[in-house]
Amino acid sequence: xxxxxxxxxxxxxxxxxxxxxFEALDDYSVDIRYPGDSAAEQDARDAVIVVxxxxxxxxxxxxxxxxxxxxxx
Length: 73
What we know:
Number of helices: 3
Shape: globular
Structural class: mainly alpha
Largest sheet: none
Radius of gyration: 14 Å
Order of helices and strands: HHH
Number of domains: 1
């Protein structure tokens, strides 16, 4: 995730403000997928918040409509 951030920030300076979000997700990008590693429930909830924030930013950058939230708002 940090490498991805570096590549995106090199093309678009707006990505710089999301560096900490990419860093926060780095631990979940590979290691967590293997048996024996897991995330605490609160860590997983925090990661989902970060992912949703990044997804909204990236979709806006790409000019894509924002999906409705699960609550429909």
